[in-house]
Each structure stands twice: as C-alpha cells, then as structure tokens.
Amino acid sequence: MEGAAVGGRRGWRWSCWAVGALVAVLLASAATFRNSAKIPLFGITNQICRCAESRKYTGIVEDCCCEYETVDNLNKEVLHPILQDLVATPFFRYFKVKLWCDCPFWPDDGMCRLRDCSVCECPESEFPEPFKKPYQLSSDNLMCQEGKPQAAVDRTIDNKIFRGWIEVDNPWTSDDETDNAEMTYVNLQLNPERYTGYTGPSARRIWEAIYTENCPKYPSGEFCQEKRVLYKLISGLHSSISVHIASDYLLDETYNLWGENLKLLYDRILSHPEYVKNLYFAFLFVLRAVTKAADFLGQAEYSTGNLEEDLKTQSLVRQLVYNHQVQTACPIPFDEAKLWQGESGPELKQQIQMQFRNISALMDCVGCEKCRLWGKLQVLGLATALKILFSVDDQNLINQQLQLQRNEVIALMNLLNRLSESIKYVNEQGPLAERIMKKKTYSTTTKSSL
Fold this sequence. Notes:
Blueprint: H1 2-35, H2 68-87, H3 90-93, E1 94-97, E2 184-187, H4 201-214, H5 225-247, E3 249-252, E4 257-259, H6 262-270, H7 273-292, H8 294-299, H9 307-321, H10 324-329, H11 345-362, H12 369-391, H13 406-449
Antiparallel strand pairs: 1-2, 3-4
C-alpha cells in the first residue's frame, strides 16, 4: 500500500508537471502571437496594421541650417504663441497700404465674385491716436466697398506717425513708401487671409507672370543658389497662401458656411512635397531676418498711445528676437553670407532685385482687394527680409546702420506669423488630409477593380 501510494504520488506529480509545462508553452505561444503581426488564414483580415507613423520630412531643410523636427518643435512651443499675441497688438494690427493702383502690365479685369474680396478700412474710433492727423473726410469717402460708413478712415498720414520711425523706400519693392496721399490703414484682424473666390484666368495670370518671367524654375544645371532662393521664397509664399485658403474655405455660399477644405490642402500642397519644403525654407529665411535685426527690433519704440499695450508689444518683440530656445536650437536658420560671391555677385544681386521689384509691381494687378492687401503685405515682408539680409553686412554694421520703417516691421512680423500658421496647420491637419485622400483613392480603385 505504501509503495503504491508513493508510486501514485510520483505519477500525480509527473502529471502536474506535464500539465504545467503544457500551460506554460500555450501561454508563451499566446504572448508571442499577441505581440506579432496577425497573419490570418487565407490572407483575409479586417484588422489594420497599426505601425508607428514615420515623419515625412526629416533632416536638414534644404539650403538652411535647421532640421524639420526642430522647426516644428520651436514653432509649436515658442514662435507661434508669441507671434499670435504680437500681431494682435495695436501696433502690428494696422497696415498702411495703397489698395487702388493701376496695373502696370495689363488692364485690371479680374474682380472676384464674393463680398469677402472687399477690404473695409478701420473705423476712426478704432484708429490709434498717434496715427491720426487732423483732417475732415468728404462725404464721398464715407463709404467702403461693402457699404458700411463706419468703416471709413482718415487716408492722410502724418509724417511723424511714431517717434524714432522713418519713411524710406525699400529697394526691393516698386511701391513708393513715402507717398502717403494714396495710402490708407487697414485692420488686419478684421480682414483675415482666407478664400475669396478670386479664381480663373486673372488669378492664374498673376502667378504665371511671377513664375515664368520673374523667378523661373531653371534646369538644375543652370539654377544657381541665388536664383533658387528667389524661386523657393515665392513658392513658399504661394504654399502659405494656399494653406490659408484651405484652412478657411467657403464651403456653402448660400448659408455662408466656412470650414476646412482638406482636399484642396492635399491637391495644392501636400501632394507636392517640394511645396511643403519651400514653405519651411521661406519660414526659416524670414526668421533669420528677424533674428539678425534683433538689436534694431528690440530697441525700437512701439508707440500707439496705449502705454499698457505698447509695453506688452515691446516685451513680445524681445521675447521673439532674443529667445534662448531659438538661439540654442537654431542659431542661424539661413546663412546669407554664402550668397553673392564671386565677380558676378553684384550684377546677379541687381538682376534678382529687379525681378523681385517686378513681382512687387504685379500685386497691383491682383483683381481682388483682399488678395491684393495680403499680397502687398507679404511681398513687402519678404522685401524687408531681403533688405535686412542683403543690404547690411554683419562686419560693417557700424558703417551700414540698419534702417527700417514702421510698415516694413509690421509686414515682416505678420509674414512670419502667416508662415508660422501654415507650418502648424500642415503639421496638424496634413496627416489627416493624406489619410482621407488615400482612403478615397483606395476606395475608388477597389470599386473600379470590382
């Protein structure tokens, strides 16, 4: 009996060990199966492979000194929040512009069809006191294009708008910045850059004239770096404008319904990686100009008559131009010192400067007022960046003191904000837009094959 009991216990222990081993093997197999890709029978599955999404744009931005990942992080965490607050301040909210100009190249024939094309000027009650000059408007000037009398403004400009600010012409633009007779102030916050319905032959002719005549995309062998810079700046600006149109689009004119148009974003921008890369290039180029002019911008006087707002504006400007995170992560966004080298440098610079002046003049041919407003502002912003980077040498700052007028600074900061918004929007909504469009393409292809 005792031997049988012992033998029975041994058999029971062996059975337990065998069962335990079998359970362990099954658990290990289950864990391995859970952590491996699910390979279904007959190759059919309803499961989606959830692979980690890799970044589409990595490494150094071409012709720049900063990586895509660094730009995205700095923009999201530092630059975009500061710029959003900065452009909303009274100083950077009002832009002086000549909206009614004759096109020097062809008759203006392309007015858009939406009332959103029109620009309403600032009501006088909103106009900062230091901007004003005693003047009585005639009854003929009391109506803006949208028929709102309260939008009329004093169109005369005092030459002493701000203490410490000068009125000088920018050598990179065609506009006479000192001619105040035809100038008016516009509240940029009330006239956002968005879809206006300005399409068709007139709009296409503007961009065709810009690209084919003034900054053509030369074959790679003939495309010197200076000309490549001009092309990429215009392409990046074009991309940014398209992003803003897609992000604030008129979905239903009958019900005045506005929203995102991700298909437009994909078709015009995301499906062309070169356009996205040029957007990053333009952003870093303008950021370099802002940081290079840090001492000028940080010491300038941002006076609008509202002491609290003016102090806030100066503080925000200094946070931007002296930002430690930007200086550490991307100290030289673009290296302008490598351009205009060699014997042909001065001649090439003069040629490209003339081409950019032509682009500036083309803004007077834009048939849509609101498009013309933002076109003029952003082209002036680029012209200001070009002026800062190529008109003053770092080694000769004592002999070549940088001089900027108030309108140039306003255009520069608003342009940087526009580019910042575009990069942020592409990062946030780009992956969704691409998934939607690829899903639609896959669905269409599947239906066709069936």
